[in-house]
């Protein structure tokens, strides 16, 4: 990485002559936002009640604003390539190490979640898919986790985000298909939209907030996406498009799912859909496509950090070995801790809140002296820090209690 002095010397005139276009960047950004969290939106509403829907919108606005703060930090120092670079400019090497730990742990756990998602949904379609290997019986969920890892592995070897944009487009299409399938299940397959649900459930509100924070937390990838653009000045427009579109998608599936299944919702709405119907099968098939479109984008910042730290890793054979190793490790964790909803809540409360709410505000305040003057901007940033701290503490405690309880079982 460039030193701090090099980062400060650079001017805004250094723009990328080559990079992803506006629309390709929108595809990548929306694909990272409208991801697997969509499946848990109805569950999140069921945990907090209808009033928690307002928190979905509030957190969307807050996360959009903090994404803009990251963009301003990158605009000030155009040689910044990653979130960790922003942390180093703001707080030095120790700050970089501290924030990078949160950053890469979040991304790694998201990789794990993608694999768990595949195992859960494919096992619903093929419950008897199991086999024995080296004397060990591998059940349906574990078998599909392994198969998914083998299929997704080649996509992690791609280096260009421009190439990944086409995969991202497929992820967006599958999200829209999923919504269509849920509408079909409600209208045609007889489930209906008759559940009233609860207006407010204080006991589950922290879980709702944690899941919402997870859904809008793509900040770990935003600097990478911004750096890939051929015109960084369009970053704010990309963020507006991505957050607005993802909020519509999340809100739609949340309302539809809660009206269909009410308080009986499981951590993934696909697990509630009636079996043996064409619409359910299509919904699950489109769901299992999503991880294939997202895994490579999520793993990219981790790989970039390793290759920048050890330049030897940039050699093609070694780079492939490193990427493969990370995939293998994520498979091992997914097999031993297959708790999709609780892990998502933990990621949202502890890691996503820190990376998406707290750290962008702190880095921005450190890098921009004018922002520390009393005014509307400072009031907004302080309010975000207070809200983020509350959600982080409450949500982390609740999710950890649930994880420990279910692991023991």
TrEMBL record:
Residue span, Amino acid transporter transmembrane domain: 19-397
Highest taxon, organism lineage: Eukaryota
Source organism per UniProt: Pisum sativum
Cross-referenced Pfam families: Aa_trans
Residues annotated as transmembrane: 50-71, 98-117, 129-152, 164-185, 205-226, 238-262, 282-306, 318-337, 343-365, 374-393
Single annotated GO MF: L-amino acid transmembrane transporter activity
Membrane topology reported for the UniProt record: Multi-pass membrane protein
Name of the protein: Amino acid transporter transmembrane domain-containing protein
Keyword line: Amino-acid transport, Membrane, Transmembrane, Transmembrane helix, Transport
Entry's Gene Ontology cellular component terms: vacuolar membrane
UniProt subcellular location: Membrane
InterPro entries: AA_transpt_TM
